[in-house]
Amino acid sequence: SEVPTFGFAVRQLQKRDLLPAIVFVFSRKGCDAAAEEVGTQRVSLVTDPEKLRIMEKLKIFAAKHKEVATEDRFRLALRGIASHHAGMIPLWKSLIEELYQEGLIKVVFATETLAAGINMPARTTVITAMSKRSSDGVGPLTSNELRQMCGRAGRRGKDVVGHSVMMRSRWEGAPEAFTLVMQQPDPLTSKFAPNYAMVLNLLMDRPVEECRSIVERSFGSFLAAKNKQKMEVSADANSELREEVEEAQTVVERVDEEELRVFQKLTERLKTEQRVARILTHQAEDNRKSMFADMLPYCQAGTPVLLKYSSADPYAAQEDLKSMETFKGDPEAAILLGPYDASQILDSTTPDFFVCLSKGNRVRIVTASDVIDVDTESNVVVLGDDVTGESLIEALPSKRKWLRAGVDSFVTPGSARTDQITAGIPALQLPGIPPEVMAQEDRVRHVEALLVAHPIFARDDRKEILRAARFLADKAATGELRALSNADKANRDRLGIGTPAEDVPVAWKDFLACMQCLRDFGYIRDTNVTDVGKLIASINAENPLWVGSILLYSEELYDFGPHELAAALSCVVSDMSRPDIYVAVEASDKVREFSVNALDMQTRVVAAQLGNGITFDVPLDPSMAGLVEAWALGTPWNTILSLTSLQEGDIIRLLRRVLDVLRQIPRLPYVPGARGVDSQLRLNARRALTIMDRFPVSDDVTYSINEDEGLADDDTMALAKNMEAKRDALVGMASSRTKGDVLSELFSDSSSTGWDVEGDAFDSDEPQEAWLGPLGEAVELRASSGWGSDTDNEWGSGEDEEEEE
Length: 805
Prior knowledge:
Blueprint: H1 6-15, E1 21-24, H2 28-40, H3 48-64, H4 71-77, E2 81-84, H5 90-101, E3 107-110, E4 124-127, E5 131-134, E6 137-140, H6 143-150, E7 163-166, H7 174-181, H8 196-205, H9 208-216, H10 219-233, H11 239-252, H12 257-295, E8 303-307, E9 332-339, E10 354-358, E11 362-366, E12 371-374, H13 389-394, H14 399-405, E13 410-413, H15 416-422, H16 435-453, H17 462-477, H18 480-494, H19 506-520, E14 524-525, E15 528-529, H20 531-537, H21 544-553, H22 562-573, H23 589-611, H24 625-632, H25 637-642, H26 648-664, H27 679-692, H28 714-721, H29 723-731, H30 739-746, E16 771-772, E17 778-779, H31 794-804
Parallel strand pairs: 1-3, 1-4, 2-3, 4-7
Antiparallel strand pairs: 5-6, 8-9, 8-12, 9-10, 10-11, 11-13, 14-15, 16-17
Helix pairs in contact: 8-20, 11-17, 12-16, 21-23, 22-23, 22-24, 22-26, 22-27, 26-27
């Protein structure tokens, strides 16, 4: 069977009234490509009134956000088609969700993340593959993943039943779909794992004994205890498995372990190479079939062709056609007479039929699949003045009668006149094997030679050895070997053989490991959380110990401007370094020097975690810092996109993670003495929020910064005034006119008091009315005399007093 296209699938859904639908495609590029494929076929799924409603909403969106409005997405949306994935701008995804909920978008091509957490009810869901790529390679869908996607089908209050469609692929069909659908649901597993924030927050209010009681009441601890009980109950029932394992181990020990490993690897490699050879052969066959399907309608009558052999008896009665069978044999030469019912050429749902006269004087009705080769270089065979291809075709039975017969190749005997024509049919040779198939067959033969030359191949018991090794590998993969070992150990413990291990739940072990790691850094003393530990507990990050240690012990942060602070924090909150990511702009020298100096702290944190058996990520990735710094310096959004291969959604997600950390810094608790985060860094974080708070990173719908979180003082004005020069020095190209340029014009007589900016001192006593904030609002100015100045302003003075208290 042919693999259905997305356009065909959507047309069938529309024909059967199964829209709206969500089509799950397991890659971002695949979602966009699928939507474009359907769009190029001029498929429109909406009525004219619905199209007008969509156009109104798109006009409003384009008027407000013209810098992110794209013609391709608008064109598809007007036809009721859209894609939805994490690489898109959140505001556009929000608009697609709104249009879908109103019934204006009929088909959404989305990744599987849409299957959870978003209110987009559909009548039908389409699963386009039964396997997907993950960090561990390509693997089949789990039963729960399939159920999660299928569960989106059916709208409450609108549909009595939901529909789920599974599309076949080149390698997956109905058997694989049936196996996946009939699988039992995957067992529930707990993702509960103690972390630094949990440990600190629990210890601040409770004694250790109560903390342990809470941890052991978790669902993860319950599952662990239940699984342990099952293992103990089944320990005595493993005698048969134990005997099979011991027997297999005895067989495997007949040969050297390394030799067996190499032989297994060669065996698996041979299977892989053979599978690739089959795939290439099928691809070549498909290409040949497609080429002939396009060529045959335009060939002249009498063109020599080479057909697959058919055993159908041409002298059988027409009513016996259903009993005819076909099998493989030597191909036969023939000539093309013409298309059979030429109107079919315009019908895309059925194959084109062609009439051929074989050298054995048989008239055959075939499709492009029956043609092995077409000889376009030789002269066509002359039929004669009294015989034409059309006359022979008209004498054949009706197409309906042939189709009712239901056979693959239709044959009828020729006449005495056609027997004379067959004498001129030339003999054709089989076409050569495609070079890629020949090269792959050479690889197969090479691996076969290596396999035959291996010492184990000469052994008579090699199949027994391979079966035993495969049996042990399967049992190890399913965890049965480990369960058997645990059962044996439990039995030895009950009999007093060896020292039984302390019965400590895994979750509590992880809790104690986090406690010890926090002790190593002085955030916990005995079982009490220190003042600095309370600061760490208030940080909302994947690894608050790492982020908090950077804020506490990296003195370079206090010498940074707001744009440099944002870039430095991006190094420690996100690790997006991949070989396929391109970023054209590097961070400033000070930020790069910070990332080098932070290696010492990263080493300390990693060493402490490994020493306590903890594997939390400790990211230090300066590759994105230049992009963050460029945005903080007012670089336009379209310029940011041109500086990297990251998709829009990834860039926004990175910048929002930086903003999340910046928003927390001013709210961190104060620590007595000089061990905490002082007011200078808190003010700088607020200034960084102000200069980064621009569309589309913040949009007042999916993410926004409160007005009181930012800070628009004279130092922020100084950066705004000189933003263009800094931006050009960083990006290396002239940027378009931005709000930073407008600010420079508004305050052309003022100057900066920070970041080594030249100019006259800003007169803080001179009254200023307002400046235009990042979203164009008027923001009241408050005077300041510079970075780290002894002159207190209204906001910083209160903080200093609180810190002193």
